[in-house]
């Protein structure tokens, strides 16, 4: 355990047992280091102060208001600590064996009668923030044997994953903005001052942005709202909702037309420039000016600014993804980075070299496989899959539409789709109509209230952590292992054991089957893959020797040790004696600094051609949809967009009083001109109506939003019958996804459209 014991030995019987633990905050993508004071030991240990770890190699003491609330989350009286089984509508505490027996009794007959696709699984966003979700979700999916796999990725990030897969060869081969070294940071649809960043892991975005400006750099923010990030920007472009792809296409068109394309050092590895030229030709600044709401001269100027900056990087995030042309916008972000010579160079958009899990850190290019779309389609709407998952917008209709292949049972792993998916009312009713449902969750929330069995995960402080996915997107190469701060409660299963046992039940191995069976299978498969990898450091080695070297570890610690040791910095089980191991990370409680990002092309590419594809086929085919949209009549009503708040994190943190108290945050932002026109009064309620739903919410009149646009935050809508979130129920807010429409999607990725929803607003 990397715990520094007795840092404050005062002689006091309580103080003398105080120790300090260090851990990476698992709540958002920033990955801040925390310093946690723990009084006592064993089951009676109590968490004291939590603050930023000043010695953390990545975050240097930065922490946001959420990080210090891990204690409140752990102590929350509403947190479920033992399995729950619902019988005749009444919840009962159960033992783990009883809970798995109930699942076996109810789930297996459904599979037997209707096939394995009668069960769907949904993986919520927190799975990215747990070792269990990263390492044992796949075995669970295999155990269920269903192709009805859904996740939060198709709610807000699949466009970026898909464009990166098509351009660079992998869904997580995403270039991240090297903001610590750039001269011009061009941001679309992202508000890192509130979100702490996404698909670009970096603690302390405010500090990094302010440092950028202090060294003479600039930040331009494109957003319909003057977000906190836009407030800080040197220039705010108040674009119309959903129009990022038009703006970006026009900027590329300007670069090409004005002879400003300079591919820089990556030129030998770039394919498709001629095709790109033809694709963007219709999108002149004049052609997109109306649809974007940005005048042609400004578009031309910012394109020239990008080209002229010594270094620059374009970064688009949720606002660009959750739109009608999300994949095209995500693609164009990186097209701009390539065309301005900023791909793969310091200060531009760069590829990390993670210690664990990088799919492009070994071997050479030209080993990639073509991205296959449409291997299967959804039953009702015929939507295509991507990256092994079906679009989450189709979940409700797959549940509530009778017929062959209907989803009748549901496994929800750390997700709250009743709040996070479009047309929340329809999904809520669909969940109610299921034959059987299991939730793995720490709360009985708006989704898990529909379950028949809830399997609780331990609190974040009770399990070890390593950010496997997020450090693949870090703006600086680091590695950081967090041991569990507190022990598991008596009889509590770790969350990897919950997933493993659920997988075994679904496979018919029985309700009491040992989670170790799955764990051994996972480590065996990873060892076999490492040995078979001809580019890997343990190619051809003996599997038994490697397995023995990992002993006595089991569970996620054994898997992380293995992945570290066969990774780019690893000890290769003795071949590189100074290399990383889990033991080395345990001896470095503040993390290990692996250095700034380095140019990685062409070796980091995994496209079938070994090239950066500037005009991949599926994307090129979708551009006509964008071009046709130029001819559509302008929408003259109000459009709804979302927003983030620093104290909120999707729907998860609303049961922590210190984060939700004070001024109401779930309000409808309305521009003063719209408020005057519609007779809306600040602080008074209004009804917001879309094609699919209606909510009533207080109005907040503000000029920090473009006229014609209104904004609601997401993740609210608590206080529903059967949910037992006491604090959240008192600060309920409304569910913005009652208004979002499951029919509106980015066609190529199937991603939800959550920005630019046509609504009407009426004062009440
Ligand atoms: S920014 Fe994110 S990782 Fe850092 S303390 Fe806040 S919630 Fe935790």
Quick summary:
The chain is α/β, with parallel strands linked by helices. The chain is built from 26 helices and 29 strands.
Q: What ligands can be seen in this structure?
A: iron/sulfur cluster
Low-confidence stretches: 1-15
How large is the share of residues in beta strands?
15-25%
**What is the number of beta strands?**
29
Compute the separation of the termini in Å: 58 Å
Instruction: Tell me the structural class.
Output: alpha/beta
Largest sheet: 7 strands, mixed
Strand order of the largest sheet: 6-5-18-17-16-7-8
Keywords:
764 residues, six-stranded mixed β-barrel, 31% helix, single chain, globular, disordered N terminus, seven-stranded mixed sheet
Explain what you see.
The longest helix is centred in the N-terminal third of the chain and has 19 residues, at 96-114. Helix 2 packs parallel to helix 18 (495-507) and helix 9 (244-257) runs antiparallel to helix 11 (285-292). Residues 1-15 have low confidence and may be disordered. By secondary structure, the protein is of the alpha/beta class. The protein has 26 helices and 29 strands. 31% of the residues lie in helices and 16% in strands. The termini are far apart. The radius of gyration is 25 Å and the shape is globular. Strand 24 and strand 25 (694-701) form a beta hairpin. The structure holds iron/sulfur cluster. Iron/sulfur cluster binds at residues 25, 27-28, 30-32, 63-64, 66-67, 196, 203.
């Amino acid at each position: 355990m990397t715990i520094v014991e007795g840092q404050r030995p005062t002689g006091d019987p309580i103080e003398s047992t105080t120790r300090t633990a260090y851990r990476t905050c698992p709540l958002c993508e920033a990955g801040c280091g925390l310093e946690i004071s723990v009084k006592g030991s064993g089951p009676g240990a109590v968490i004291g102060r939590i603050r930023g770890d000043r010695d953390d190699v990545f975050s240097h003491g930065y922490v946001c208001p959420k990080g210090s609330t891990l204690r409140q989350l752990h102590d929350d009286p509403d947190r479920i600590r033992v399995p729950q089984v619902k019988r005749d509508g009444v919840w009962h505490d159960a033992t783990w064996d009883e809970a798995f027996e109930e699942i076996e009794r109810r789930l297996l007959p459904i599979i037997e009668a209707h096939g394995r696709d009668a069960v769907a699984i949904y993986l919520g966003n927190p799975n990215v923030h747990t070792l269990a979700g990263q390492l044992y979700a796949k075995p669970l999916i295999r155990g269920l044997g269903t192709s009805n796999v859904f996740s939060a990725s198709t709610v807000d990030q699949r466009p970026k994953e898909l464009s990166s897969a098509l351009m660079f060869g992998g869904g997580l081969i995403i270039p991240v903005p090297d903001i610590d070294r750039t001269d011009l940071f061009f941001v679309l649809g992202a508000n890192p001052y509130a979100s702490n960043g996404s698909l670009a892991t970096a603690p302390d975005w405010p500090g990094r942005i302010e440092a950028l400006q202090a060294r003479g750099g600039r930040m331009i923010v494109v957003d319909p709202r003057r977000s906190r990030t836009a407030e800080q920007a040197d220039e705010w472009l108040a674009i119309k909702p959903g129009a990022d792809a038009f703006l970006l296409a026009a900027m590329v068109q300007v670069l090409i037309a004005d002879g400003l394309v300079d591919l820089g050092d990556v030129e030998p590895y770039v394919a498709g420039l001629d095709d790109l030229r033809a694709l963007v030709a219709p999108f002149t600044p004049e052609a997109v000016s109306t649809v974007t709401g940005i005048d042609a001269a400004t578009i031309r100027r910012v394109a020239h600014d990008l080209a002229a900056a010594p270094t620059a990087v374009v970064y688009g995030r949720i606002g660009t993804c959750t739109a009608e042309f999300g994949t095209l916008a995500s693609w164009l972000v990186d097209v701009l980075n390539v065309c301005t010579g900023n791909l793969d160079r310091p200060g531009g958009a760069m590829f990390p070299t993670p210690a664990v899990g990088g799919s492009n850190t070994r071997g050479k290019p030209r080993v990639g496989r073509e991205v296959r779309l449409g291997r299967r389609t959804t039953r009702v709407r015929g939507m295509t899959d991507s990256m092994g998952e079906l679009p989450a917008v189709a979940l409700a209709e797959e549940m509530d539409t009778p017929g062959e292949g209907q989803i009748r049972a549901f496994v929800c792993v750390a997700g709250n789709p009743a709040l996070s998916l479009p047309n929340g009312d329809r999904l809520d009713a669909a969940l109610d109509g299921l034959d059987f449902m299991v939730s793995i969750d720490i709360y009985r929330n708006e989704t898990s209230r529909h379950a028949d069995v809830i399997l609780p995960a331990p609190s974040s402080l009770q399990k070890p952590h390593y950010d496997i996915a997020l450090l693949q997107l870090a703006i600086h190469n680091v590695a950081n292992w967090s041991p569990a701060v507190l022990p598991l409660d008596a009889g509590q299963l770790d969350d990897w054991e919950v997933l493993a046992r659920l997988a075994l039940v679904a496979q018919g191995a029985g309700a009491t089957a040992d989670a170790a069976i799955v764990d051994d299978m996972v480590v065996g498969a990873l060892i076999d893959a490492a040995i078979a990898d001809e580019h890997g450091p343990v190619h051809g080695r003996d599997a038994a020797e490697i397995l023995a070297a990992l002993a006595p570890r089991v569970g996620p610690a054994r898997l992380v040790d293995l992945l570290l040791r066969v990774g780019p910095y690893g000890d290769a089980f003795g071949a590189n004696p100074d290399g990383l191991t889990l033991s080395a990370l345990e001896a470095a409680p503040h993390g290990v600094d692996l250095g700034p990002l380095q140019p990685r092309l062409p070796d980091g590419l995994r496209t079938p051609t070994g090239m950066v594809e500037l005009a991949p086929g599926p994307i090129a085919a979708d551009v006509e949809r964008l071009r046709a949209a130029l001819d559509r009549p302008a929408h003259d009503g109000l459009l709804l967009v979302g927003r983030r708040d620093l104290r909120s994190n999707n729907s998860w943190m609303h049961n922590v009083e210190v984060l939700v108290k004070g001024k109401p945050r779930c309000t409808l932002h309305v521009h003063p001109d719209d408020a005057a026109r519609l007779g809306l009064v600040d602080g008074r309620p209004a009804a917001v109506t879309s094609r699919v739903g209606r909510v009533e919410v207080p109005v907040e009149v503000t000029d920090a939003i473009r006229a014609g646009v209104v904004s609601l935050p997401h993740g609210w809508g608590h206080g529903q019958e059967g949910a037992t979130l006491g604090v959240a129920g008192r600060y309920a807010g409304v569910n913005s996804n009652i208004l979002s429409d499951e029919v509106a999607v980015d066609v190529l990725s199937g991603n939800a459209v959550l920005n630019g929803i046509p609504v009407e607003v009426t004062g009440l």
